[in-house]
Design a protein that fits this description.
single chain; 251 residues; alpha/beta; Conserved hypothetical protein from pyrococcus furiosus pfu- 392566-001, ParB domain; five-stranded mixed beta sheet; 9 helices; Chromosome segregation DNA-binding protein
Amino acid sequence: MNDNTFDELDELESLLESELQAKDLPLVHNEMEVQYEDPATLKPNPWNPNVVDPINQLKLEASIQKDGIKRPIVVRTLEDGTLEIIGGQHRTLAAMSLGYDKVPVINRGLISDAQAKKETLIDNFRYGNDDVLRFSELLQDPEIGSAEELLATMPIDEEELAGYFSHLTAENVDVEIDSILDDEEEKGETIDLGATQPTRTHQIIRFRVSVEDAAKINELVKKVRADNGYTEADDMTNDGDALVHLLLTDH
């Protein structure tokens, strides 16, 4: 990241602050009360963009079965009195599957379609990203459960979980080696690092693309895998090898 990038970020921050001050918007205080409703009576909205695959839906059910529902379902009231889900459709489905006859609900009242859609988007998005090292350390905290327990209840697969664990291991090894080197330099001695943990050979990387592009990329990767015999490792590694072949061959 160069100085120009930092300048652009500073300008953007100043612009946002200026716009907020210029609008002089009052703070919005929504007094919310939690009520309890039968999940079977809650109507899904027709625009929810959040899609959960069957495996992660089962993990959500396992999480709710183990720890209960931690976030209320957000709904609005329609003209006919029906409660329509704004946020929490998959929690609702999980609760129904588990046999819940009551779930915690926050009712936003008779709000417009536009406001409901906006709140659905807000409910589905995060405003930050995980710090990989801190996330790895949190995953390895023995008090929150074993790797098997995390896999059973979190929307993460075995490869991703292994990647976070190996990242933490690699960070610790680097720190330990640096510390050893510093100590040995003071003593004027050399050390053998041959007995340290093996070097990481792979890393999980992630991208966000459109659904249409994702389908095209998946088909292309499958073709490259088949054409070039990338079949010996696990599916994620085979896909990665095919993608590298596609991007770097003849470049």
